[in-house]
Structure formats: C-alpha cells, structure tokens
Amino acid sequence: MSLLDYKDAFLVGLFMSFMIGPVFFMLLKTSVLKGFRAALAFDVGVILGDIVFISIAYYGSRNLLEKIKDDPRLFFIGGLVLIVYGLITYLDKNNKKELDQSEVEVAKGNNYFKLFLNGFFLNFINIGVLAGWLGIMVVVGPSLNMNPTSIFWYFTLVIIGYFATDIIKILLAKQLRNKLTPLVIYRIKRGMGVLLIAFGALMMLKGFVPKEKIDELINKVEIKR
C-alpha cells in the first residue's frame, strides 16, 4: 500500500465517525452524563459492531468482486451503492431530532459491560451502517486487488481513524452537545449526503471513461498548475 492509501483509509474512518445518527448522539450523551470511561466502553461496542459489518461486507462480496475486479462495470456498481446511501442520508428527516430527544436511553449506573453491549447492538441494528461499509468495500477491494493482507490493513487504519475521532468527540462532548442544534445537525448530514452522491457519481463516471483518458486529464490539470 502507498502512503496515499494510508491517508485515504484514515480519512474514511474520520468521515464514518461523523455520520450523524443514533450512535453519534448516544456517544455524546454517554460522555456528558456518565464520563469518559463509560463513553469509551460504549464506543468499543460500536467499533466491534463495525468490525462485524466489515467482515460481512468482505466475505459476503468477495466471490463477486474476485470475478469482476477488472470489469469497469464494478465502478458503476460501487458508485450506485454510494449514491443510494448518499440519497438516504440526504433525505433522512430524523436529522432534526435534538440530542436530548435521543430515542435510546443510557442505562443508569456505570455498568461498563452493559454500555459496551448497548453500543454494539445500537450500531448493529442500523442496516444503513452495513450499506455504508459494503459501498466502501466494493470501491476499495478491487483497487487493492482483493489482497486479504492489504484489505486487512486498510480497514484497520479506517477503524483507527474512526476510533481516534470518537475519542476527540468524547473529550469535546459538552462543547459539541451545545453546538449541535437541530439546524446544524440537519445541514451537516445533508452535506455528507451530497459528498457521498458526488463521490458515487465520480465512481460511476470512472466506469464509463477509459483509465487512460482519466490519467491524461489529471496530467493536463497538473501541468496547468
């Protein structure tokens, strides 16, 4: 893997960490009400749920991706998945719910194992998270030639980026909690939806345009700079 691959993996983790949803709110709420250790236990459960989803995405799509990894239509499929996920994110009307109105309550008392289970199951029941990891796997897997070692380290770095960002969120929970008004939440999530749609569209375009043409265009842009 190149250094660029490492950077991209870390940024993917950062992006996934800021997807606004029940887990995002519960992590902040747990930190504010129960402290750092409780929020950390909750987040470790969330991370385990993500690891399970990544494994499902990998083993569930491996045979298909092995067969079509050199087929340009793969970019069309991956782009379509990201566009659909982006549209769901953009059109979700639950974005305006305030943090204090979160649908899932944190258990009373600092039962760390229970908080861990809460994090795992709250993340695991969200099928949208699986769709997101599947879209990333469809895009990333073939670019790494479906090499198990490369894929393992790529997603390890994704998880590290995800977890590191969550730690920052936990430490800044009170400040974030005060600034996350319904309007701000709504705008952030719609912005993320637009980014996913744009990235998906670029992936689909890559499936139709020959790689040589894309490289030629990139070279022209760099020369002009």
From TrEMBL:
Signal peptide: none annotated. The chain crosses the membrane at residues 6-28, 40-61, 73-91, 112-139, 151-172, 192-209. Keywords: Cell membrane, Membrane, Transmembrane, Transmembrane helix. It is found in: Cell membrane. Its main location: membrane. InterPro entries: LeuE-type. It is a multi-pass membrane protein. This is Lysine transporter LysE. It comes from Tenacibaculum platacis.
